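PROTEIN DATA CARD
Card holder: Class I SAM-dependent methyltransferase
Chain length: 237
Origin: Paractinoplanes lichenicola
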Amino acid sequence: MRGARYDAVADFYDAGFSDPRDPVLTTVLDHLGPARGRRVLDLACGHGRVTRELARQGATAVGVDLSGALLDKARAQEQAEPLGVAYVHADAADATELKDESFDAVVCNFGLADIDDLDGAAATVRRVLRPGGLFVFSILHPCFAGTALVAGTWPADQSYYDEGFWVADNQSAALRRQVGANHRTLSTYVNTLSRHDLLLTATSEPSPPAAWRTDDRRDAARLPVFLVARCVRLDRR
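Structure generated from the sequence above:
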């Protein structure tokens, strides 16, 4: 299995991204609906923050990630506070370890930009979801180029239409300066989902934190920063 960019920053990521219920995740969970009694996959689960929240809400939760270092942290948390979460070390774009049509829902919180093969990831989601199952994901809004203080999904000195992998140089983008990100247009996301029978049924654009409107990030607060979407898996067999 190929290495993961997050292996080198596992300690940094675990220390800085542990809030179990930030506003965007709250929106993701709202789109998912009641988790209790459902089998839910957390795609690109990292250190298990979202996976564990799903388990706390009553889901049978499974997390999958390419980073063995982050999964070690997730499993350590599970050992310290057992919630019945299972973790799978696999590439989201080729997770053959996951059985076909074995999940009621899949969530991916800010993970799609870290997955190089979006088409492969969408194929995995379609394959592991039961017909009628939901795929709910959050991303930085593809239209958000960022500002001097807040990094966006593409370099501010380039074009929205220039897709590809890039590494931020914005000093406030502590994570993206280390692991980079894949920028894709909104149409690329929607068309890729459609090719894999994932019908977009709802979207939300959560507001940035209220504090941004009164500090140096007020320019970013006027723009679409986050996007949350819900899809349903069609049955075209």
